[in-house]
Design brief:
about 45% helix; about 280 residues; alpha+beta; globular; 11 helices
């Protein structure tokens, strides 16, 4: 499926529309905010600059304020889970308070949808940049937006929307605020006491992570401020880009040489039919 460029989305719709159209607001009054939007909204009614795709159980939308080159949200559709209320689906914490097996089933469903999305992102990476890089899939321990959503985000954190320490630390893969979906699923296989501890998702504990000093997730070097960090992250991405493209070019040349040798060998092995007929006469 074609991924709209950030420029195309800006030209066609204000980024905030992605939030308001789905009713995804920071709010404690979850039921009133969501009952008239997420539950009723038809995917076909959403413009392609907001909605990337959907399944019977989820919506995949472009993040309204992307923190990386590629950034999507996958949200469970309440109508697919009639046994769960809107408040049950407000966050990972609220979901984990419900039936354990049901919660695991829902998260695995989101993971499955994310794998399909990652394939589309990788295809677009190669199309736009000539190479592909890592994609993270995870949830926030203390999300600011109330409706359970899975982040699928490219591992670069290069974006004009990355404006402050809170933004950055919330996606830093090593700090813990951003929880990889595989880690969340591992809780279900752990001892019940460990699951209960992790499922508490204490907001105070996670909020403290957002105040951690800035450091590069690539090389772990400390950064004095956001402008310095953003410049550093772009330099890191440019280095990765150069390395990937150089590797791809070497691979292409190697494949070309192999193809040339194969053609030469085939040509040498092909019998000279005209020569054979002349000899017979």
């Amino acid at each position: 499926m074609q991924i709209a460029s950030d420029r195309e989305r800006k030209l066609m719709t204000p980024s905030r529309v992605a939030v308001t159209c789905l009713g995804l607001f920071p709010s404690r009054n979850v039921e009133s905010r969501y009952s008239s939007h997420v539950r009723v909204q038809k995917p076909a009614d959403l413009p392609p600059t907001i909605l990337f795709g959907h399944t019977p159980s989820s919506l995949t939308i472009y993040d309204a304020f992307p923190k990386s080159i590629f950034h999507f949200l996958i949200l469970p559709r309440p109508e697919a889970y009639p046994d769960l209320t809107i408040p049950d689906l407000s966050s990972l914490k609220s979901l984990l308070k419900k039936d354990k097996s049901r919660a695991e089933e829902l998260i695995k469903s989101l993971q499955s949808d994310a794998e399909a999305l990652k394939a589309d992102i990788e295809s677009e990476m190669v199309k736009r940049y000539g190479f592909k890089w890592e994609i993270w899939t995870g949830l926030h321990g203390a999300p600011s937006m109330e409706h359970l959503h899975l982040h699928v985000i490219s591992a670069d954190l290069c974006s004009e929307r990355m404006k402050n320490k809170k933004h950055y630390n919330s996606f830093h893969p090593k700090l813990g605020f951003f929880i990889d979906i595989d880690e969340v699923l591992s809780w279900f296989e752990a001892e019940p006491s460990y699951y209960s501890t992790m499922a508490k998702l204490d907001h105070k504990q996670y909020d403290a992570i957002l105040k951690e000093p800035l450091s590069c997730f690539h090389c772990h070097a400390d950064q004095k401020n956001m402008p310095t960090l953003k410049t550093h992250l772009q330099e890191e991405f440019d280095k990765i880009s150069a390395q990937k493209k150089s590797s791809a070019e070497k691979k292409r040349k190697l494949e070309d040489r192999k193809e040339e040798r194969a053609k030469k060998q085939k040509s040498e092995e092909t019998p000279n039919l005209h020569g054979t007929e002349s000899d017979d006469n």
